[in-house]
Design brief:
By secondary structure, the protein is an alpha+beta fold. The protein contains 2 helices and 2 strands; from the N terminus they run H-E-E-H.
Length: about 60
């Protein structure tokens, strides 16, 4: 299944988007990713598997 979460605002987007993805996880999973605009650049993290793997990746390499 496919699910998309978005956020536009002044707060740190990473925890908001990860929380939104957690709410969609019940629909099934095979991969997850996150992209944020950071100083005019788009930073991307993605991983195959459960959302927890993406969270670990973001913790090791913050956006």
């Amino acid at each position: 299944m496919c699910g998309i979460v978005g956020y536009l605002g002044s707060r740190d987007a990473t925890p908001i988007i990860l929380n939104g993805l957690k709410r969609l996880e019940y629909r099934g999973y095979d991969s997850a990713g996150i992209a944020v605009m950071n100083g005019g650049q788009i930073d991307v993290r993605k991983d195959a598997g459960k959302l927890s793997q993406l969270v670990d990746l973001v913790n090791k390499s913050p956006l």
